[in-house]
Structures are given as C-alpha cells and as structure tokens.
Amino acid sequence: MPFATKFPVQSVRATYPALDDGHAYLDGAAGTQTPQSVIDAIVAAYRTGIGNVGGAFEASHRSDEIVAACRAAVADLVGGRPDGVILGPNMTTLTYRLAGAIAKDWGPGDEVVVSRLDHDANVRPWTQVAARAGATVRWAEVDPATGELPVEQYADLIGERTRLVAVSAASNVLGTRPDVTAITALAHEAGALTYVDGVHASAHGPMDMVALGADFYATSAYKWAGPHIGAVVADPALLETIRPDKLASSLDTVPERFETGTSAFADLAGVTAAVNHLAKMVPGTGTRRERLMTSLSAAESYELELFAVLLEGLESMPHVTLYGKPARRTATAYFTVAGHTPRQVAEALAARGVNVWNGHSYAWELTGALGIRDSGSAVRAGLVHYNDSSDVDRLLQGVARLQA
After folding, report:
1. pTM listed for this prediction
2. In what order do the strands lie in the sheet with 320-322?
3. How do residues 97-141 score in pLDDT, each as one tens digit?
C-alpha cells in the first residue's frame, strides 16, 4: 500500500522482537511493545551492577547517571527541563501525589475545572482533593456526536476562583486532540495552573509542553515503547513552591522531593533507550530534541495515513458504529459491532491474532457521556509507529466476519 509519507515501518518493526509472534498489535493505546534497544538497556543496567543513588561506590554512581540521563531524555521528548522531570511508577500515582500537594491550600470557594473527555487519572485525583478541601468542581462537557471538547465553554467555566484546569492533550479512546493551547491561555489569564495529561498524545507526534501552555505535563513511557515508568514535567521554579508530604530523611531538592521510595533504576535506563529509539526511527540530524521532532512528525503522518484506511473500512460496514469524529485526532478508533458485546468482538479478533482492547479504558466520564459505559463500552483499535497495512487488513477482515 503506497503512502505519501516515507516512513520506514518495516525497519522499525524489525527492532521489536514481540512482533515476531505474528499478532497484529493494535492495543498500543493500552501499552506499546518495546524495541530490542530498550530491553538491552534494562538488561545491561542489571548486568553491570547498580546500587541506590547517593552512595560512595561505583554502582551507586551508575544509578545516579541513569537517573540524570532519564530526566534529560524525558525533557527532550516533551520540551521541558531535566531538573523539572519527576519520575515514578506511573502517571496515576504521580498525579495523585501532586494533586494532594497542590491542593493543600484550597478551600471553600476555590474551583477546579476538569473534563469529561479525560482519562480518569486526570479527573478523580482532582475531584477527590477538591471534595476534601470543600472546593467546587466544574465540568467541561464533550460533544457526544463529534467527540470534541468545545473551547468556548471554558470562558464560562474559568474564573477568578479557578485554581487549576486539568485537560487531556488527546483522548485515549476517541483520539480527540482538543485545543489545549486555547484552554490553557484562558486558565493563565485567570491565574490558574494547568495540568495536561499527555499520556496518549506523547506517543503520536512531536510534543512541546511550553507551546501547549502546560504548567504540568504528564506522560508514561510504556505508551511510547518504554517500560512502565511515569513522569510529570514542570518548571523547576514552580515545583519549588509546592511542598508534598515526605519523609524527614528524604531529599528536599526539586524534583527529588516528589519521588518517594527507591526508583526502578534499570527501567529508567530503558526510558532513555526508548527516547533514543524514537529519535532514530527516521534519519535526522541535530540535537536529540530536534531529531525527535523530525522522527515523530514522520511517524504521526504515517499513522494518520494508515488510520484513514482503517476508518474508511470500518465506516463502510453497516454493522459497525464508530464513536467520535473529531477534526484533530490520533490514530485511535472506538467502535461497537451489532449483535456482539465489545468483549465478544475482542475475543473473536484475538482468535484471529488481532489484539484490541474492550471496555471503558478508564475513560469513565466519557463513556458515560456517550451512553455506552453500562453496556460494556466499546472496542478500541489504535495504531502506533510499528503497525502496518497488514495489521489493518486483518482487523477489517475480522470485523467484517462478525456481520450478523
């Protein structure tokens, strides 16, 4: 299948050993596979010997270097600063920790704005800390017909008592890319902070948290070819003003004060390798940041071209209902099949070697707004940079066979 975008998908696929099993991995929105370079980096960290950070011996120094390299890599990926990169086990855990710290001085009359488009990890931490503080939660609504998050409503939602606006850079089920820049501009005009969930968006194109207006930008490496590590990136000067609960004996420097316990150092080495992998998918020159922008731009164009084929195929089937038709989106489809529950569709496709997800995928408010949460929600099929036309063909063939 010829594409306008010259993306070397077959050479990229060859770096992922898991793809050798012959399955069509269309479950990347729930977590991608990892290339050999990431696996090698994790193994090498263990084989060489690592210790806890801050020690006087060589193995400890190696861990210090791994952590520093990981912060620099994540900063390059999202356009932040290494000394503003908070690392942890996943985005949900980090968001809960930051929400508790940010909301320490909230009280009655204060307001937080959340969205029904978002993954629950960028909703529930904020609504729960607001409830404890006696603050008011204001909701941005989704257009259920299009899957869009209209910007216009934020002018009424954001005011002088708004303390924080939480919004997603891309929906993890519909792929919707809201106008985050416009939303964060309104928040900043009112003196509010912004917390942008970039977990889904980061895998699908170049990212610039400063251009987005994100005071906090959250991401997870396992969504972009890395291990199960999360990160939240912010301006170090902003982090200096926030005081999380911490052990008296632990570091009080930024960003370390937000990181509890001992890190998974070998996995952090894998995060750096994943960023390097993303930067090398297509030939490029310049800094790693510049190569990432080039490589991920090419990957995004390729994914969307391939996704157009997937969408056209699903739309042509009368027994398929697609949810959301946003103007800007990632290569993520959410659909149901007449006569079959989403789980039955996923099981039928799995029997044909096609991996898709079913259910609400933690888009709890969104699936409720769409009116499908109580019936099993829908099936999600998402493309990432290692998917090819054969994956799409197998999905479409499998879904076509389910016609009642």
Report:
1. 0.98
2. 320-322, 332-337, 378-382, 357-359
3. 999 999 999 999 999 999 999 999 999 999 999 999 999 999 999
Helix (H) or strand (E) holding 370, with range, is: none
Within the chain, which residue ranges are assigned CATH 3.40.640.10? 40-278
d(CA 338, CA 58): 61
Residue with tokens 């004996």: 249
DSSP result, 77-130:
HHT--GGGEEEES-HHHHHHHHHHHHGGG--TT-EEEEETTS-GGGTHHHHHHH
- Architecture in CATH for domain 40-278: 3-Layer(aba) Sandwich (3.40)
pLDDT(354) > 60? yes
In whole angstroms, how large is the CA radius of gyration of the chain? 21
Give Cα 348 distance to the centre of its chain: 27
- pLDDT band per the 50, 70, 90 thresholds, residue 310: very high
Reported as a single tens digit per residue, the pLDDT across 224-233 is 999 999 999 9
Domain with CATH 3.90.1150.10 in the chain: 9-35+289-400
Which residue's entry shows tokens 């050999």? Answer: 36
Task: Compute φ and ψ for 27, nearest 5 degrees.
Answer: -110, 20
Fold of 9-35+289-400: Aspartate Aminotransferase, domain 1 (3.90.1150)
Average of per-residue pLDDT across 295-305: 98
